[in-house]
Structure formats: C-alpha cells, structure tokens
Amino acid sequence: MSEFDSRRAEMLEWHLARRGITDALVLGAMGSVPREEFVRAELRGQAYADHPLPIGDGQTISQPYIVALMAQAARVDAGSRVLEIGTGSGYAAAVLAAIAGEVWSIERMPRLAARAGDLLARLGYTNAHVRLADGTLGLAEHAPYDAIIVSAAGPAVPEALREQLAPTGRLVLPLEDVSGWQTLVVVHRGDPASTGTAAGEWEHESLGGVRFVPLIGEQGWDSEKNLWSPF
C-alpha cells in the first residue's frame, strides 16, 4: 500500500465513516479517487487532511467530508444524471463520476475549467464533462438531472436549477442569509404520502453550517424583488 493509499484509508475511517457518512457508494468513490492528483504539488502531503486547500484563482478544493456529505445527501447512484455547479479542481466531479452514470460540471473560470477537464480525462473519468458556463443558469440541454450539487453560496436557489431538477431529484447547495451565515441545504419536492405536503411543494432540509465562495454569474440576486434576475 502506498503512502497516499494509507492516508486515503485513514480519511475514510476518521473523517467520513466516524462522522456519519454511511452510503457505501459514496465511501467507495471517496476511497477510489486519488485526491492528491487534484491539489498543488507542494500541498500533496495535505491531500487527505479534512480541510480545504487553495487551487489558484482564489478558489479551493473542498474538504473531503463536505464532498462526501453533499454526494450522500444528493443520493447519487449508478443511474444518476448529475449537474455540478463549480468544478474547481475537478475532485468532486471525479467522486460523482465514480458513482453516477453521467456528470456535467460547470466552471466559470477558463483556466480552472481547462485544467479540471484535462485532469479528469487523463485519470479516465470519461463520464465527467466539464463546461465553461454560468452556473446560475444551469445546463438546460442535458436536463433533467437526478441530482444538482452547487459548490458556491447564494441567498436562494436559482430558478433555472429548480426547473432543471427531475421530479424526484435532489438539489444540494449552501444558502447564505443576510448576516452572511451559510447553511448547507437539500431541496426536493415533498412526497405528500410521507410528509403531508401538497404535491410538488418544495421541501428544505438543513445539514448544518458551511463556508463556500459566492455563487457568481449573469444572474444576480435582486433583494428588492426577492429573486434571481439578469444584472
């Protein structure tokens, strides 16, 4: 077993399994993806520490626990079509691709998009597709998605993402309130039989406090109208 294999196994046990990550598919994916390939060369020794690391352009690779938590909350499986907003290093896209059927990942920064796309291809994640695009608009041409995972925070769910979610799909994203506090939330349509909600009514489940970069795109939050709209 290599040094990185050993550290990856420790990550699975100490940072994931002991903190409530129980989904076997997620644990299997996290155990197979070489996170050291997605961080800067000088930071490889910290690849399996449970904290974010800088990747350039003011962005970070998320801590392993958050990547696993979001994938588990989205209930990604082998038949899933997944949309990820915020490719960054490409690590989360690789984890999702190790589970799902197809992953479409959007990145707004050209250098990060090109680097992540090349790395995912080199590592053999042929079902992960990186697109240089605006995350606030989603990617309508491949919708509907069984899961949408957003790695950037905004005050509300962009309407485009709600529209592109499959009827039984789950959307996982950080929402930020007026004080700047961010909460990781799962958004899905309620099941009247089990929740007592009206058919199609949106349900929100909180997963706790987080810290992500802002969600930026052609759509901006209009606080007066209380909706996302073009700048």
Brief synopsis:
This protein has 231 residues and is α/β, with parallel strands linked by helices.
Description:
- The chain is α/β, with parallel strands linked by helices and 231 residues long.
- It has seven helices and eleven strands.
- The protein has helices spanning 3-16, 24-32, 64-74, 91-97, 110-122, 159-164, 192-195, and strands at 53-56, 59-61, 81-85, 102-107, 128-132, 145-150, 165-176, 182-189, 202-210, 219-222, 227-230.
- A seven-stranded mixed sheet has the order 5-4-3-6-7-8-9.
- A hairpin with a 4-residue loop joins β10 and β11 (227-230).
- α2 (24-32) crosses α4.
- The longest helix has 14 residues, at 3-16.
- The model has no long low-confidence stretch (mean pLDDT 93).
Strand order within the widest beta sheet: 5-4-3-6-7-8-9
Sheet of most strands: 7 strands, mixed
Distance from N terminus to C terminus (CA atoms, Å) equals 52 Å
Number of strands: 11
Based on CA atoms alone, the radius of gyration comes out at: 17 Å
Order of helices and strands: HHEEHEHEHEEHEEHEEE
Helix run count: 7
Q: How much helical structure, as a percent, in the residues?
A: 25-40%
What would you call the shape? globular
Q: Note the beta-strand portion.
A: 25-35%
The structural class is: alpha/beta
Mean pLDDT: 93
**Which oligomeric form is depicted?**
single chain
What are the segments in which pLDDT stays under 50 over at least 5 consecutive residues?
none
Observed structural traits:
231 residues, alpha/beta, seven-stranded mixed sheet, two-stranded antiparallel sheet, 7 helices, 28% helix, 29% strand, globular
